[in-house]
Design a protein that fits this description.
By secondary structure, the protein is α+β, with helices and mostly antiparallel strands. It is built from five helices and four strands; from the N terminus they run αβαββαααβ. The protein starts with 10 loop residues before the first helix and ends in a 5-residue tail after the last strand. The model has no long low-confidence stretch (mean pLDDT 94).
Length: 141
């Protein structure tokens, strides 16, 4: 079993996404696994006075990120509680799943690089033990 944690895109994955021919909207599938206790060691300036759970830290991240996401033309389509797979690796679980709509690849890249957005990304880092982010493009009907 792969024990590597994935919290940020690799350089190659970022390059491939930036070069991918995506015309129009895309949806980002997020799978999230939280830390029991949020780890603010990388962003102590964002740390609350008392320890909080990873889920609580992620809720702080969402509260910070959502206005920036909406300003960039995106929004949350779905956010729900996860669990173990019905079909998938036994014992693997994800605490939460989200679908984020963005109007374009360029809008997503601009959102992800915006200084005001990045000022609160430490909540995400503190919250997550592992994650997956899969860009999806709707198939023609």
């Amino acid at each position: 079993m792969d024990t590597t944690c994935h919290l940020e895109p690799t350089w190659n994955a970022g390059r491939d996404f930036a070069q991918r021919a995506i015309a129009g909207e895309l949806v980002m599938l997020n799978l999230l696994r939280f830390r029991q206790i949020a780890d603010y060691s990388q962003s102590p300036e964002l740390a609350p006075p008392q320890p909080i759970t990873g889920a609580e830290a992620y809720d702080r991240y969402i509260a910070h990120a959502l206005p920036h996401l909406r300003k960039s033309g995106g929004d949350i389509l779905f956010m729900g509680e996860g669990g173990s797979f019905l079909i998938g690796p036994e014992g693997e679980h994800w605490d939460r799943a989200m679908l984020i709509r963005q109007k374009s690849r360029g809008a997503f890249l601009a959102f992800a690089a915006a200084e005001a957005y990045l000022a609160g990304i430490g909540h995400r880092t503190a919250a997550l033990a592992d994650s997956r982010l899969l860009p999806l493009v709707e198939l023609p009907r």
